[in-house]
Design brief:
It is a single chain. The two termini are 29 Å apart. Helix 1 packs parallel to helix 8, helix 4 runs parallel beside helix 7 and helix 5 packs antiparallel against helix 8. This protein has a two-stranded antiparallel ribbon. The protein contains eight helices and two strands, in the order αααααααββα.
């Protein structure tokens, strides 16, 4: 599918509601566990999504569209949620994410980005030149990636309980 702001907003606008429905008031046995090792729990992922709303997508889009000569992105701290989420409940993190996403979608719409701006470039710390369309496409896929991750982490909690059906459940393999 070719990149489209409108098609992107279709997904970006639904993510908060989907995650809110999936996770609000759910027990910690679902939300606070991970898949072992340094993997993330649903709680960690919601904190990560909120942090991204504050520091990644819209700030970088604004930089790309600005007149600044230096379009270098500030490196994104993929682990900032571990500090930022301390002392907050999952419901508080969901509320933050919902509000931040609402504000960011309003900001995105207000930019009135036209197709001729999709090729504008910023400088990513690792990938170097990236386009606005690539950044905004990544925002959408980042949401979908973490929705799948949350589903997988939660499904993992019943890996043993499903018994022989594991064979038919790709999410557990």
């Amino acid at each position: 599918m070719k990149f489209s702001i409108d098609k992107s907003i279709e997904v970006l606008s639904r993510t908060p509601e989907l995650l809110n429905t999936m996770l609000r008031d759910i027990s910690p046995e679902w939300s606070a566990v991970n898949e072992g090792g340094e993997s993330w729990s649903a709680y960690d992922i919601i904190g990560h999504l909120a942090h991204g709303e504050r520091t990644d997508w819209i700030p970088r889009a604004r930089l790309i569209l600005s007149d600044k000569p230096d379009k270098s992105f500030i490196p994104f701290n993929r682990f900032a949620q571990f500090e930022e989420s301390k002392g907050k409940s999952l419901n508080q993190l969901l509320d933050e994410f919902i509000q931040l996403r609402k504000e960011n979608l309003e900001a995105l719409r207000s930019m009135n980005i036209t197709e001729n701006k999709f090729g504008e470039k910023g400088i990513h710390p690792k990938f170097k030149e990236v386009t606005l369309a690539q950044l905004l496409s990544t925002w959408v896929v980042h949401d979908l990636n973490h929705i799948a991750q949350i589903s997988r982490v939660m499904a993992h909690q019943y890996k043993e309980a499903v018994g022989p059906w594991t064979e038919f459940l790709k999410i557990l393999q």
